[in-house]
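A reminder from the course coordinator: this example appears on the midterm review sheet, so study it carefully.

Given structure:
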């Protein structure tokens, strides 16, 4: 099958590479010439586990190509996926301008039947706008051709994007066209050979809303657990035990109940706010999601408040903190809306110095945020002479560190763990003062006087 993917970012590149991996002929398009040049040189503009291997092999076998020529790529394929960004605008809504720009080019280029698929996360009603935009462009050319528009939101997770795409838990296809439905089913069949019921056919608005509702539900679980963690800290309960206690109920389930430093990334914050805005436009106040967003914004600053409380001073001048982890989650170089940026900024504003280490995301963090930080290439070197270690992103590398080395490098054995990676008694036995999320602090001897 011939496929064109417009927008070669985290979603577009993974989608294109995975379709090529199944034997399809795929063209990936982007307006960013530099990105296309990088890809054509055989390099990747992003980090995603397993992606390099399938891009390399499919490039070598001629099934995958990269171009900036949207019109040519649109004419060459039966399936046209729109996977461009839908960033948040000031009022919180999703900006579908890039999607509609692409629709205009499609309408100006197609010369025969095409299936146009919105893969970007777009508000309800966007597929309809895409249809109208293509129709207008066709009319302006005085050209008539039939086309279908399908909503097919993407559910992959950064850090596991390739595995998710190759083995999806569901594929949502919103369409009113039987032909488009059959063609999309045929396209996705190889990904669902063990269970074709994972292909969910629905109407277009339901497909569009499913994506927002899914992210909003996941964000809600995180903010909920962050609030429960605050109650645990104040009452002496242990959030880890509460988490297991509630997760054992199969109506609740164990996944996605971890408290932390707040959610970030390019999806949850933006999609929650976009859904709130959709509600606003419809006269529906989405109270739960408004709170979810507020709780999350506050949670990102909670570690800063905890640190100030610990030292009994909101002025942290003279203190140096070593930050482990800058990406918004492990497994990715994506730093969009990463809690690390909020935490580091808060500490810098309080006068502290920051030394930071991330196994993958240091460069992208440095480019995205011009914060005066000392970056380190080594997780232990990053700790040298710091007053405390702050664990912000739970990369696997940080799960079982050499605590003797950690202790030797720090000027004071204090760990603020935003991801509950360690067992409090274990780190205490190794001489650390340890503050985590939703659990009681454990204090090494010299610090026991510092907390009231
Ligand atoms: N990143 C994720 O984990 C994820 C998961 C599911 C859904 N989504 C959604 O998928 C969409 C894309 O997200 P992303 O993270 O891949 O974004 P991204 O910013 O990584 O990539 C978007 C790409 O689109 C390109 N682009 C913009 N306008 C274009 C145009 N007119 N023609 C061609 N290319 C154009 C940009 O140059 C960029 O390379 C968003 O709507 C996002 O919400 C993202």
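Designed residues:
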């Amino acid at each position: 099958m011939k496929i064109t993917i417009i927008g070669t970012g985290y979603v577009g590149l993974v989608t294109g590479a995975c379709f090529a991996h199944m034997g399809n002929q795929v063209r990936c398009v982007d307006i960013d010439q530099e990105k296309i040049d990088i890809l054509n040189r055989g390099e990747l503009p992003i980090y995603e586990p397993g992606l390099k291997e399938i891009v390399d092999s499919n490039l070598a076998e001629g099934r995958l190509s990269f171009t900036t020529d949207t019109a040519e790529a649109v004419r060459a394929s039966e399936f046209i996926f729109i996977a461009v960004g839908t960033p948040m605008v000031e009022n919180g809504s999703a900006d579908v301008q890039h999607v509609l720009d692409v629709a205009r080019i499609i309408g100006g280029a197609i010369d025969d039947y095409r299936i146009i698929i919105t893969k970007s996360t777009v508000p309800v009603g966007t597929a309809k706008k895409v249809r109208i935009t293509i129709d207008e462009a066709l009319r302006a050319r005085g050209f008539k051709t039939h086309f279908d528009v399908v909503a097919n939101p993407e559910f992959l997770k950064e850090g596991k994007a390739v595995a998710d795409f190759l083995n999806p838990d569901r594929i949502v296809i919103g369409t009113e066209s039987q032909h488009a439905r059959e063609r999309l089913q045929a396209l996705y069949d190889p990904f669902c050979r063990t269970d074709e019921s994972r292909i969910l056919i629905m109407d277009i608005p339901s497909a569009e809303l499913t994506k927002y509702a899914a992210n909003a539900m996941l964000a809600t679980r995180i903010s909920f657990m962050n609030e429960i963690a605050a109650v645990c800290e104040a009452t002496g309960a242990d959030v880890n035990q509460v988490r297991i206690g509630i997760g054992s109920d199969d109506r609740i389930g164990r996944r996605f109940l971890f408290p932390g430093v707040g959610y970030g990334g390019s999806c949850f914050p933006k999609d929650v706010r976009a859904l709130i805005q959709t509600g606003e436009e419809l006269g529906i106040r989405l109270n739960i999601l408004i709170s979810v967003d507020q709780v999350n914004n506050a949670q990102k600053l909670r570690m800063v408040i905890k640190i100030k409380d610990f030292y009994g001073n909101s002025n942290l001048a003279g203190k140096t903190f070593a930050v482990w982890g800058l990406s918004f989650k492990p497994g990715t170089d994506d730093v969009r809306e990463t809690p690390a940026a909020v935490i580091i900024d808060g500490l810098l504003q309080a006068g502290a110095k920051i030394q930071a280490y991330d196994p993958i995301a240091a460069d992208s963090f440095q480019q995205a945020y011009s914060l005066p930080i000392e970056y380190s290439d080594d997780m232990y070197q990053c700790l040298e002479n710091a007053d405390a270690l702050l664990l912000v992103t739970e990369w696997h590398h940080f799960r079982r560190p050499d605590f003797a080395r950690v202790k030797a490098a720090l000027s004071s054995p204090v760990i603020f763990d935003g991801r509950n990676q360690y067992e409090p008694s274990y780190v205490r036995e190794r001489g650390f003062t340890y503050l985590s999320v939703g659990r009681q602090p454990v204090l090494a001897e010299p610090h026991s006087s510092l907390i009231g």
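Residues 2-201 form a domain with the Rossmann fold fold (CATH 3.40.50.720). The CA atoms of residues 105 and 355 lie 46 Å apart.
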